[in-house]
Amino acid sequence: MRTRLPRFIGSAVMVGGLVAALTACGGDDSTASETPSDTTGPASSAPADPSPSRTASAQNSNAPAVPGPSLPPATSIPDSKKLPDVEGTRCETVNGPDGALHVIIFPGGSVDCAVVMPIAKEYGPKIATGSPQQVSGWDCGPSQTRGVLSRCTKGSDAFGFSIE
What we know:
The protein has 164 residues and is of the alpha+beta class. It contains 4 helices and 6 strands.
């Protein structure tokens, strides 16, 4: 008999704790009172907007609205901060380490965009290494020209990568 009473008391405490824990997890669900449980009742006078364009803040009036920064228009860049115009023939853009780069063939050579674009597409993502590399017979590496991120040369032909 002595062992049954402590077991019974221990079991009762565990069941009581479980009930208390489950009751606490239920919480107060305030959205349940706002949503009707009977869908057969009269329809609301406000039309439902199932479009995905509604944001969470539009659906939840308790969400705070945070305004974005007020930035000046792009035309307000001072001349000292503008990139210089780089002379040459403009080709397409290629993917660089941080976004699109414009490919420019520098004057004095005889190549065209059809020749340099395959090399530019191969070397563009490798610019981030910052070290000189050979790409299909072209010597490519960092450029000393202002406004040109990197440069590839082969004989008298040269092209570069610019952020415009």
